[in-house]
Specification:
By secondary structure, the chain is an alpha+beta fold. The chain is built from 3 helices and 18 strands. The chain has helices spanning 8-40, 151-155, 280-298, and strands at residues 55-56, 64-65, 73-76, 100-108, 111-118, 134-138, 141-145, 159-160, 166-170, 176-181, 190-193, 196-199, 207-211, 217-221, 223-226, 236-243, 251-257, 266-273. The chain has a 6-stranded antiparallel beta sheet with strand order 3-4-5-16-15-8, with no helix packed on it. A 6-stranded antiparallel beta sheet has the order 14-11-7-6-17-18, with no helix packed on it. Strands 1-2 form a two-stranded antiparallel sheet. Bound molecules: calcium ion (CA) (4 copies). One calcium ion is lined by residues 133, 146-147, 165-167, 182, 209.
């Protein structure tokens, strides 16, 4: 078989093709490296279904907690789904009706995504149902997110952001004896700083609910789903996401949730810096340093 001898022009053309192909492969692999994490990770969907977390919530102790490994942190403390009110929860008692079972915290872009599974359900009766609000501990104090529920939640199978918020009154034994709507602006999913905290009545008394006052500031509205009565018959699920840049602190240290009686608790410890947009002055200062570096190079 006769072999074709390539001219110099043809050889150069082929070399160029190979180089271009190599460059293309390099560009592709760099792009794949840069984008693979966000593109191929399963996105979180705020829908009250925790399969996106690797979590299956099921009755009679059949929940499964195979939490995906790209979350910032999580806590599983699922006590017996069949335990009655004397069941120990730590730090106090209350059984499945007060069981805090799972909390997961993840980052999706600039959104903090949070999931909670609990035995506290709206249809288990007003006296047993009084969730606390979500507390966001930062280096500049506690921010609070209104969780809602209560009487309003018994009427709807799923509660979402913008619904009327709730505040519960408890007696010193931890029983819920009263319910009130929050101030109109404190809707479900709204995030606030400089609030008044309501403590649980049982020692150690901790912040579990909040009320806004004249100095409180709102920092955005989370995407929010509370499944109330729609998810199995022994559990309720909260799933929410909010833009971290709405919070004017520089780091998030802990996410905390407890029923308003404080019988149980869920928390995830974090050391998460918040990216604050650079003020114009700092950006210009940065450019100045770059300019200086340029001058030094030239000299
Ligand atoms: Ca989900
Ligand atoms: Ca449980
Ligand atoms: Ca628990
Ligand atoms: Ca509340």
């Amino acid at each position: 078989m006769a072999q074709k001898v390539l001219t110099l022009e043809e050889t150069n053309f082929l070399i160029c093709k190979v180089l271009n192909m190599n460059n293309l492969l390099k560009i592709l692999s760099a792009a794949t490296l840069a984008l693979s994490a966000p593109i191929f990770a399963t996105p979180f969907v705020i829908d009250g279904d925790l399969s996106d977390w690797g979590v299956t919530v099921a009755d009679n102790n059949n929940s499964q907690w195979n939490v995906r490994n790209d979350v910032l942190g999580y806590m599983v403390e699922d006590q017996n789904d069949r335990a009655r009110s004397g069941g120990y929860l730590g730090p106090n008692y209350g059984g499945q009706n007060y069981d805090g079972e799972f909390m997961g915290v993840a980052l999706s872009g600039n959104d903090l995504v949070i999931a909670i599974s609990t035995g506290q359900r709206a249809d288990n009766g007003f006296t047993k149902y009084s969730p606390g609000d979500l507390l966001i501990y930062t280096d500049l104090g506690i921010y609070a997110l209104e969780m809602g529920g209560g009487k309003g939640a018994t009427a709807v199978p799923v509660l979402t952001e913008g619904a009327v918020g709730s505040t519960y009154t408890l007696n010193r034994n931890g029983n819920t004896i009263g319910y009130a709507d929050t101030a109109a602006a404190q809707v479900v999913g709204s995030i606030w700083s400089d609030v008044d905290f309501v403590l649980d009545p049982i020692s150690p008394k901790r912040e579990v609910q909040f009320e806004i006052n004249g100095n409180s500031q709102m920092h955005g509205l989370a995407d929010f789903v509370y499944t109330s009565t729609s998810e199995t018959s022994q559990h309720a699920i909260y799933e929410m996401a909010f833009d971290l840049s709405a919070i004017t602190a520089t780091s998030v240290e802990k996410i905390f949730w407890a029923p308003s009686c404080g019988n149980d608790e869920l928390y995830v410890q974090l050391d998460l810096p918040i990216n604050i947009p650079e003020p114009a002055g700092i950006a210009l200062f940065g450019l100045g340093i770059l300019g200086l570096a340029g001058v030094r190079k030239r000299s």
